[in-house]
Design a protein that fits this description.
Blueprint: E1 2-6, H1 23-35, E2 42-46, H2 55-68, E3 72-75, H3 82-87, E4 97-102, E5 105-110, H4 124-132, E6 138-141, H5 161-168, E7 174-179, E8 186-190, E9 193-197, E10 220-227, E11 230-237
Parallel strand pairs: 1-2, 2-3, 5-6, 6-7, 7-9
Antiparallel strand pairs: 1-10, 4-5, 8-9, 10-11
Length: 238
């Protein structure tokens, strides 16, 4: 199967720019690139759909994904307005831990966002129960990085990431962890599990650049091919 991993759209009401960058234009480019692709089974978004938490941003994103016609699942990020996210924009997708199965793979959309905080937390008991119910391979999607990052991007990680690591190590069927928040594409193998962050479609960063300097031209998303014994990740620039 093939999936698209998007993160950190950071859409603003009426398309207002952030630091001189039009996240609206970048999102439109992303949608067009996805429309031009064939064979995509599902889209997962690892948080920060909105930058300002406005209802307009969620309604616009919902309409854009609906026009693509590919099943889309999301988890919230630290910029998302949790009230709008849960109650205004497809609330059935945004429970504490939403799970679904597709093409023999289990996907767990884990909420690591805490209202009013940029740091992330997850509830171990809920994730444990969800993984227990999965018989096939598992992909976990969350916003906050559950592993250490390069350079200045190593900040505001998942606070209880040690618990996360200990928990998933108890299950041999957890194969892939997707996350966002860093605005930088990365791939790592940790204890036999593939970890990958998607480059932001809104605005990108780079660990070798000064803190919060925009890495223009590095905005993008990931196309991931999942097979029984193979995970292939391709970074697509927009």
């Amino acid at each position: 199967m093939k999936l698209i991993h998007i993160s950190d759209i950071h859409l603003t009401e009426n398309g207002n720019e952030i630091w001189g960058v039009s996240t609206f234009n970048h999102f439109c480019k992303t949608i067009q690139k996805i429309k031009d692709l064939d064979g995509i089974d599902v889209i997962v978004v690892s948080g920060d759909l909105s930058d300002d938490g406005s209802r307009w941003t969620y309604e616009y994103i919902d309409k854009a994904f609906s026009e693509i016609g590919i099943p889309t699942f999301c988890c919230p990020g630290n910029h998302d307005n949790l009230s709008e996210f849960y109650h205004g924009y497809k609330p059935e997708f945004y429970k504490t831990c939403k799970a679904f199965e597709l093409c023999g793979w289990n996907f767990i959309m884990l909420n690591s966002a805490v209202a009013g905080m940029s740091r992330g937390f997850f509830k171990p008991e809920i994730l444990y129960r969800q993984i227990q119910q999965c018989s096939g391979p598992v992909t976990i999607v969350l916003h906050h990085p559950p592993i250490e990052q390069k350079g200045w991007l190593n900040r505001k990680l998942l606070e209880n990431r040690n618990e996360f690591d200990e928990l998933i190590q108890r299950f041999k069927n957890v194969k892939l962890v997707l996350y966002g928040h860093t605005h930088y594409h990365a791939e790592n193998m940790v204890n036999g599990i593939v970890y990958s962050s998607a480059s932001s479609t809104g605005f990108a960063f780079h660990p070798d650049f000064p803190k919060f300097e925009i890495a223009h031209g590095k905005e993008g998303f990931s196309i991931i091919t999942l097979e029984e014994n193979r995970i292939e990740i391709e970074n697509i620039l927009i």
